[in-house]
Amino acid sequence: MNTSTKPALTDIKTIREQARRNIEEGAVTSGYSANREVVIKQLNDALATEIVCVLRYRRHHFMARGIHAQAIAAEFLVHSNEEQGHADMIAERIVQLGGDPDFSPESLTVRSHAEYIAATNLSDMIKENLIAERIAIDSYRELIQYIGTEDPTTSQMLKGILAVEEKHADELADLLVDLPSKV
Ligand SMILES: [Fe+2]
Ligand SMILES: [Fe+2]
């Protein structure tokens, strides 16, 4: 095995000295190698995306009508609550990184990757949610690739969220298959 490609380990004395510097930065140490401003900006865009998804799913939960609606409306509520959980995790991570989570309603839809489409019938609701999930999946995958190995905690969080978005998309695709046309 070629060990020369492995990064050198820092000695304890240096680690201790580095930890004492800039202690007001909390979890962000001198070993943090990602571009913090870019990561915070991207996380804020992801936060906006999650909030828009919370609102869209919520609207669809209350607006779902018809005999096929009950189970689907319940699913929309579950998704909405899970998107809220993602928003909370992302906001917490932004603060850990020394940033400000942006909850400003004015710029939400501008910053969000996914759109807020009101939709009025069940099949449009499912389709729009599926499209939004597919947008979220691609955005998260790209951000995970951008971060690489430079911020393992953020990367791990995003991978967890990505797995849930994939589950959401899969469930919506199933709902669409089961749905008779014209509902
Ligand atoms: Fe989400
Ligand atoms: Fe989702």
Automatic annotation (TrEMBL):
The keyword Iron applies. InterPro entries: Dps-like (IPR014490), Ferritin-like (IPR012347), Ferritin-like_diiron (IPR009040), Ferritin-like_SF (IPR009078), Ferritin_DPS_dom (IPR008331). This is Bacterioferritin. Residues 33-183 form the Ferritin-like diiron domain. One of its GO terms (cellular component) is cytosol. Signal peptide: none annotated. GO terms for molecular function: ferric iron binding; ferroxidase activity; heme binding.
